[in-house]
Amino acid sequence: MKVRLPNSSQRTVLVGRTGTGKTVAGLWHLSNYDFPIGRPWVAIDFKIDEHINSIERAAHVGLDYRFHKKDAGLFVVHPNYSEKGNADLEKFLLHIWERENVGVLCDEAYMLGSSDAVTLCLTQGRSKRVPMVLCTQRPVWISRFAFSEADFIQCFDLNDRNDKRRIEEFVPLDFDEEVPLADHQSFYYDVSKKHLVRFNPVPDMDATRKVLEEKLPRRRFRL
Questions:
Q1: What's the pTM value of the predicted model, to 2 decimals?
Q2: Angle at the Cα of 78 (from 75 to 82), degrees rounded to 5?
Q3: Per the count of CB atoms within 10 A, which of 81, 91, 93, 99 is most buried?
């Protein structure tokens, strides 16, 4: 069976311990999308990730930014993980849900928590055309909706037994029986097709950045 990649309304979750390549893989998935006018993407970057911030044509904005009808390309927000920051992020995600047609990529997705806005985006993202790419090193720390509503789950190497058990709830894997993954390999599960493959490493960040730079509009600004 041919491996399918996510479309413009589907949800993808990538899990793996630090250093396994999940963030680069998440950005590689992003690079496979088009960025038509009216359908922007936003990267929620809690930790000032070097890969996300190396994308020159991304527009860095604040959580008070509201997407316009003709916005296109990749926007990046850098929430502060504090009580006020969480409230601002909640409003920002609610705006995305209400506006529709905005993709969301989040590194360190456990920091999103399980707020009403996160749940709405996860459970109604398909009808709202809010595709999501969520990366996390600790699957036990993120909302179960991230997995129950996912269309694709990509699993890199994990150390923690509880994290492995969480993945086994949603992916037909038995980590005790599987041959260990090589560096940057992953298990890639197409939920609706019930199709599990061992996925070779995606292109490196230099190649992914080049594709993104060719697709993204030239406009760039920071708030």
A1: 0.94
A2: 145
A3: 93
Interval 101-157: pLDDT, tens: 999 999 989 998 878 899 999 999 889 999 999 999 999 999 999 999 999 999 999
> 77 near 45, Cβ under 8 Å?
yes
| Residue 14 C-alpha from the chain's centroid | 7
Domains and CATH numbers, the chain: 11-215 (3.40.50.300)
Positive or negative torsion for Cα 77, 79, 84, 89? positive
Residue indicated by tokens 């090193």? 137
